[in-house]
Amino acid sequence: MLISFLILGTTFSLRIWISVVPVIVGMILACYGDVENITIWSLTILISGCFASGLKIVMTKVLLSGSHRYHPFDLLQKVTPLCAIQLTPVILYLEYSGLRVDDSVNLSQWMVVFATGIMAFSLNIANFFTNRVVSPLTLTVAGNLKQVLTILLSIFIFSTKITPLNGIGIFVTILGGADYNRFFQKQKVLNEKL
């Protein structure tokens, strides 16, 4: 919300804040305890990642629906080489040893990398098309609900253990997302009547 305010000049009513705060608090509770030994460095990386994610969503909105009006495929074509340049050193440093082909070819790991790339590409396309028609805040709320769905799926598929506090966080996030959606549906109906 802060990045949207700073870049787009978007202001939010108290009613929107009332809907979004439970999503934020719920996500904090849903993820609480996942990291046992948090350090200043890891916290800095986490906050930087959150800031970068918010900046990406807002800037994508500007480029897809502002005066530039790029098509999602055009924007992806411009962004992908930059992402590849930024990520290649990280991949070579952190991941290459696990994927390196030495005496035995580890085809299954390379297939996982390829499938992950296809899924990431599909996610970016869906994200760009969605970002053209909804606000950055709506996309962020939906992203948080997607994270809750991921947690729920990991509980059912992998029998991931969660604490009661995590369960409360999941519940609060879902309620906040539902309230946010209900509010915007009412706003949409009111705008159509005008």
Structure summary:
This protein has 194 residues and is mostly helical. Helices cover 81% and strands 0% of the residues.
Shape: globular
Helical content stands at over 70%
Instruction: Please state the CA-atom Rg, rounded to the nearest Å.
Output: 20 Å
- The stretches of 5 or more residues where confidence is low (pLDDT under 50) are none
Structural classification: mainly alpha
Strand content: under 5%
Distance between the termini: 27 Å
How many strands? Answer: 0
Which sheet architecture does the biggest sheet show?
Answer: none
Discrete helix count? 8
- One letter per element, helices H and strands E, the order comes to HHHHHHHH
How many separate structural domains? 1
Give the averaged pLDDT, no decimals: 85
Subunit organisation of the chains: single chain
Textual characterization of the structure:
The chain has about 190 residues and is mostly helical. The chain has helices spanning about 1-10, 15-30, 40-65, 70-95, 95-100, 105-135, 135-160, 165-194. The radius of gyration is 20 Å and the shape is globular. The chain starts with a helix and ends with a helix.
